[in-house]
Q: What sequence folds into this?
């Protein structure tokens, strides 16, 4: 005898993510899930983004690492609230971890939360956290062939940040090939060329993020999700 | 990626649904996996064989339906099947496309050899599944 389920396999994660999303919408908070390899420049990009947008938006950061508070401390040193999640071994963040982190933040006083996912080009791809957008960073020293080798993360990202463009002269990075493969995987997401530590290209990336935050605020106010 | 944890999630949800329907054994679990997910069937089958002994699904078969990737072109309107690397519209070359299928990760149904008293239940159990990664 057949028993019908039609149930998502990641049901629990999806349900908690939807709860996170509803709570965030109540306060009109935009959440960015930032993914990349270890060392690609997630934290540097977050710090550069904070400097570009802190006069316009109230920002907090949720840091995800296997261990240590290194990244949360770096963010707090810039006067921005940060919550550190230590997964203790899990290679990606999930929505139950985000739910706990959100409970430690003053959501009514925030416009933007940046989630720095665990350094990993594979696992964060399939786990919805309740974010508004997933964005990934690929850094020039990693090589232009990464989209071919790790297609999933490029496909789910709403924007792709190419970081450390100031190191192009040192590495054999074929930018045309990189762009061609990214486009074949993801025809519409913008590619932002930046140097997070030197500031190059950060304004254009920040402008895109700002327009997404403003879009959310307008739509959540309109839909009566928040006062 | 995480097939062991995902398989545990499949089994937990299946046990709940079967028990709610009054069944004591499961002979088959049917799932759908989209081609654009990172899930590998061989790893799921391996985990299934490792996790089912001693449970109500001991000896059961895991049947996997692979859902191909399809997209719709927002410029010329055609819908097309493609692999991961060919999302651009094959008809007009447009980049402005919407992904339709290929991201599925779903438990479709179960088969039980048991006689059930009433109509088979749909999954109505609120009990959580556990899909933590390893």
A:
């Amino acid at each position: 005898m057949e028993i019908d389920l039609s149930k998502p396999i990641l049901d629990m994660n999806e349900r908690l993510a939807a709860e996170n999303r509803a709570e965030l919408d109540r306060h009109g908070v935009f959440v960015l899930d930032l993914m990349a390899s270890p060392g690609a420049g997630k934290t540097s990009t977050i710090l550069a983004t904070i400097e570009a947008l802190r006069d316009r938006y109230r920002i907090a950061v949720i840091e995800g690492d296997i261990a240590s508070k290194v990244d949360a401390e770096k963010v707090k040193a810039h006067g921005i609230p940060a919550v550190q999640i230590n997964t203790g071994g899990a290679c990606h963040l999930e929505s139950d971890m985000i739910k706990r982190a959100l409970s430690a933040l003053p959501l009514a006083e925030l416009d933007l939360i940046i989630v720095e996912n665990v350094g990993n080009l594979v696992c964060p791809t399939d786990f919805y956290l309740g974010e508004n957008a997933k964005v990934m960073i690929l850094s020039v020293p990693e090589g232009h062939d990464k989209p071919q080798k790790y297609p999933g993360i490029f496909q789910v990202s709403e924007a792709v940040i190419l970081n450390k463009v100031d190191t192009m002269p040192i590495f054999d990075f074929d930018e045309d090939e990189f762009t061609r493969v990214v486009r074949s995987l993801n025809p519409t997401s913008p590619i932002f060329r930046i140097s997070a530590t030197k500031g190059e290209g950060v304004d254009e990336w920040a402008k895109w993020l700002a327009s997404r935050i403003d879009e959310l605020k307008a739509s959540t106010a309109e839909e009566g999700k928040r006062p | 990626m995480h097939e062991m944890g995902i398989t545990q999630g499949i089994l937990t949800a299946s046990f709940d649904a079967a028990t709610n329907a009054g069944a004591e054994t499961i002979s088959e679990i049917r799932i759908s996996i989209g081609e654009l997910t990172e899930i590998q069937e061989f790893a799921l089958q391996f985990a299934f064989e490792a996790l089912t002994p001693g449970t109500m699904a001991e000896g059961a078969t895991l049947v996997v339906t692979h859902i191909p990737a399809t997209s719709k072109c927002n410029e010329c309107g055609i819908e097309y099947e493609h692999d991961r690397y060919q999302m651009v519209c094959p008809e007009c070359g447009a980049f402005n496309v919407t992904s339709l299928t290929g991201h599925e990760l779903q438990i479709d149904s179960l088969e039980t050899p048991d006689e059930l008293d009433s109509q088979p239940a749909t999954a109505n159990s609120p009990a959580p599944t556990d899909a933590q990664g390893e």
Notes: The two ends of chain A are 50 Å apart (CA to CA). Chain A touches chain B through 33 residues (CB under 8 Å). The beta strands of chain A are 2-8, 30-36, 59-65, 82-86, 112-116, 133-139, 159-163, 191-193.
